[in-house]
């Protein structure tokens, strides 16, 4: 009997041990699930929870924890964690990340088992030899460049309870992204509080107390990496958004200032939802917009590259161009900025540097950015250094962003030149002037050359075409026509179309010549999308004969038969009345296939918020599929799920409402989004 009792007790102890191990392993499995989805912050929290519960973590899990710290930019913890399992590292990814941790810790030397040692182990394990050899050379370069530039870099006095970066000059102050709401539970996948835009006055280059830049720019997610035109009336910015399929993307938007606040946001037209776009920078002359993207093709070098696009009249843009292999590398190039003296500043982890992102500068020569060079210390450190800007009032001062602090947070730093300034020597009375060293005066005798007489009759003297609407094919009256010299940007002649869509613009004689290129701009605010083209003077004859067409802006007056359409649904099915409305919508979109509509899908506030968000997206996609089955082009619709964010009546979460009242929120609003170019 005693033996039976002992066996029962032993079995209970074993059972409890198995259950305890299972519970702890369940935590690790949960962490592994987050890790596979690249949700490193969540994965690390679960691993730490398992560790705090007393579970002995395997070397594989410890390696993952080290990688999580690396991805979260906590290099010190990544190093101390991976050192403990150094002898368990085995794959090229293990060696490569460990090497990068040493690289970003400023420990480069091979003989000290630093970054070069582990990069070479990654090579032997099969890592990309081109990229890894570049990283090895970068380590050797960093070890050889320890001199300091004559600048002082100090933390700015911006108060923040989290990260702050991406500063830009704005009128008499600065605008920057900051997480200044302490205690916020709304965090991103890296555990960081979401960023908003703040403004601070500048007094003698000192940043004063900050305040929210604009309530119109507050979003539920990150917003930042901004740029302004020279008149501060147009703002470009980066925002994190959810796209079809639930993924997050960086997108570029712009807003115009209306005198009181910033108007509605406009997504830039060259955005492809399969890629990220961010970090805008308007050139000082407002002619170009520089930005960052990981788009494939179009000259992409790998990772994130720098691009630029010409800003054209009427809110249009030219062709997107990659800045080329002298600037872009296999790594990431981010945060471009063009100074008033036309220097490109940017950050990269692909050019030779001290570790992480380093600041670089490039010069514009022969139509391209060249002569890329590292800005050295103290601009750069072993941490991430980025988003450098130069004061337009004093080129010896500026700001940069860096994670070089003990906390590892991205913060804004002031930059100031502390070297000796060259002073101009002004001769005083009694000084002896060395006549032999004075520059010789050169007298240029201009040769008078008679200009040949040009036969102007071979060039058109009038631009007298007709303009019509692409929508109705009727004459477009009141359209402003501008003829601009493409070389100088000077407006040389203007005109306005009459009731028959005709205009008659005289071309000045001095522009009637061989090789003359014109920029033609056609616009009518509020009625037509502006159109721009570059033509040779001899091509005007064809336009005079054939005319041209403008695409109308489809506002509520033009689209009375579609604006305000709402489709209601119960469960995941449209109501009978809404099915009839859907038929009308399908017919309209088939006849007007240049129109793109958004299907803004909403739910009531019952159930889980997350489920409501996903269900609204699924319902929008279902309606999109129903329209496609009726013959509507898939590019004519954009489903967007908003869940319970926009309730139309009192039935918010926690308020008791009838089923009929709740169903008023289960709707899909049809909104005209844009007009496709023909």
UniProtKB/TrEMBL annotation:
Known SUPFAM superfamilies for this protein?
Answer: DPP6 N-terminal domain-like, OmpA-like, TPR-like
Q: Name one GO cellular component term.
A: membrane
| PROSITE patterns with a match to the protein in the record | OMPA_2
What InterPro entries does this protein's entry cite?
A: 6-blade_b-propeller_TolB-like, OmpA-like, OmpA-like_sf, TPR-like_helical_dom_sf, WD40
Q: Which UniProt keywords apply?
A: Membrane
Superkingdom of the source? Bacteria
Q: CDD domains given for it?
A: OmpA_C-like
State if Transferase is listed as a keyword. Answer: no
Q: Identify the residues that the record assigns to the OmpA-like domain, covering every copy.
A: 555-676
Quote the protein name from its UniProt record: OmpA family protein
